[in-house]
Amino acid sequence: MGLLGWLTKRKNSNRGKVDDWHRRWRNVCQTPSLEAVAELGDALDVLNLPEDEIEVEWEMLGGLRHLVARQAAAASGSLPLVETGHRVVGTDRCHFSAPASMPDDANQPSGRLILTHVRAIFAGGGKATTIPWHAVSDVVHQERDVILIRRDRETMYRFRCNLFGDALEAAWLARTLADGTRRQRV
Known about the structure:
Elements: H1 3-30, H2 34-47, H3 55-75, E1 94-101, E2 110-116, E3 119-124, E4 127-132, E5 136-142, E6 145-150, E7 156-161, H4 164-185
Antiparallel strand pairs: 1-2, 1-7, 2-3, 3-4, 5-6, 6-7
């Protein structure tokens, strides 16, 4: 077996272990806790892979740690407030702002995903897309994507964040804000 074959075989054997870790990460994303995040960190250490092979996984783990901290802070009664001078926010209370893109749009614009107490806003590509929370029926998180599905089930908006942590926090906040709007209307 040549050097290339040895390297390819080694990388492929590691791929299965990393894929298993990704499955565990997705499960922990459903109900994150400090204990589950610590177990994921231990599992990543046990893989004993070079840093450059698992740097994305360390970012994913950091995103979960950040989310657990945000959720703990919110459990004390308040969502995070973000200072922004962006004019599309107006008088809304801003809870989140991060770089993102809309990969399903033909132009794939880059801009900012902004979550306020009344709506989600994507400011980019020369225009602003606004989705009021009362129109959102479901929020889906997939890797670095946050998907908002409208009540009519005809329209969905996919926002791709640059960081896993931003996507995790945005999905959690979007669910919280949309659910809060639904409870207020009942």
